Amino acid sequence: MTRVPTRGGTTVPPSPTATPASAPSPAAGPDSARRPGRRAGRTRRSALVAGLGALGLLGAFTVANSQSAAGASAAGPGAAALPGYDHVVVVVYENKQYGEIIGSSNAPYINQLAGGGASLTGMKALTHPSQPNYFNLFSGATQGITGDGCYTPQSMSAANLGQELIAAGKTFATYNEDLPSEGSTACTNGQYAQKHNPWFAFKNVPLNTGKTWTQFPQGNFAALPHLSIVVPNQCNDMHSCSVQTGDTWTRNNLDAYAQWAKAHNSLLVLTWDEDNYLGSNQIATVFYGAHVKQGTYAAAVNHHHLLRTFEDLFGTGHAGNAANVQPISEVFTSSTEPTPTPTPTPTPTPTPTPTPGDLKVVDPGPQQCKFNQSCTVQLSATGGKAPVRWSATGLPWGLSIDAVSGRISGKPWGSGTVRITATATDAAGATARVTFPLTLAWF
Strand 285-289 and strand 192-193: pairing? Predict the structure, then answer.
């Protein structure tokens, strides 16, 4: 067969439809000791599972979080109209709660991107530990992977994002920091870990689409494939090093692309695999570039929605559970609508009339809820210009906040103590925050 000339990635003729194949579930690997407190987190989860079983709730919880390995489906006629990008670069980081990134002084550059782009406040990972989430993002299902151990390379044939792009005549590549060489299927190499790179598991994705980070075309971004996935090493992805380390790496290595993307019909997406086991698995996700509507978006979405978005941006089929969800379309302008230029802030006109006092959130102090029982925490604010809108991060599963009343309510699932950050925003755009502990008790 004749190979089609491409740029940056690899394009091959579409292979025959293959039957999804499951792989043996790897045993828990190096992630099991990836930071202090992890063992305690897993002990708490074991206690939670035991409690769920005793309450007869485990079956429902498992079904709600199960992953199917459905094959690809054709793009339907009802797909949302999305921009047609020349290049999309997706960066995946590790193991941080939403509040450890968004609003954190440890991540000034990522917050700069979030402020200038679209930030998803309702994004959650689907499971723990790391590796199944990577498979969810790439193929719409875990493919039977439940741990962080090394998989057998080229052992799976299920539909996935790389295979779909190539079949649609698009180019695809991944750029993996500390990968020993292009196409290497090594399990580990220094700070590189295969568990963060699911593409090598699929026989329908050419090995040479797996690039080293040194092959990323700095200064020649037009040579990038249509879609690229960037995986920093286990220090720069925040797995083993600090948020500040990952933020600095991102600025140093990807800011040039981010600014280029805005002017060249391209997109940068930052996302995480999972939280740190201490919250509701809420993670930061940021869109930055051309045709992105600046703002925050609270719709409940996960890695399957993100996969569906990438598929629909390039008109491919839909892998696994991505076929059952809608794309994240609200963050985009139409493909013909220009990216809006922010309106300059007018110079304030002095006024002799008194202005409202500074907006402040009243600290509710330590709070306590019981597992799967009704719980309410009422928040309040003083000063500012009415009306006040509310949001919160760090909420455990089962609790939500009413944006109008500031009332946190629901039936939480979990145990231990979490820290919730509540934010009030008044009509003038002023914000105020408070962070307080919430302890979840069994009975």
Answer: unpaired
CA–CA separation, 243 and 251 (whole Å): 12
Cα(392)–Cα(99) distance, integer angstroms: 9
Beta strands at 87-93 and 266-272: parallel, antiparallel or unpaired: parallel
Taking residues 118-145, report their average pLDDT.
97
SS3 content of the chain, % helix, strand, coil (to 5): 25, 20, 55
Beta strand residue intervals within 200-264, DSSP E: 210-212, 227-231
SS3 131: helix
pTM greater than 0.85 (yes/no): no
Q: What are the boundaries of each domain within the chain?
A: 83-324, 360-441
267: Cβ contacts below 8 Å, ≥ 6 apart: 83, 85, 87, 88, 89, 261, 287, 288, 289, 290, 291, 292, 313
In CATH terms, the fold of domain 83-324 is Alkaline Phosphatase, subunit A (3.40.720)
How many other CB atoms are found less than 10 A from the CB of residue 238? 26
Mean pLDDT of the chain: 82
Of 64-68, 355-359, 419-423, the range with the lowest mean pLDDT is 64-68
CATH superfamily, domain at 360-441 = Immunoglobulins (2.60.40.10)
**What's the pLDDT at 443?**
62
The H-or-E segment that residue 262 falls in is: helix 243-263
Report angle CA 95, 119, 168 to the nearest 5 degrees.
85
* Least confident among 83-92, 123-132, 318-327, 357-366: 357-366
Phi-psi region of 320 (alpha: psi -120 to 50; beta: other; left: phi over 0): left
Instruction: Reply yes or no on whether the pLDDT at 104 is more than 60.
Output: yes
- pLDDT(184) > 90: yes
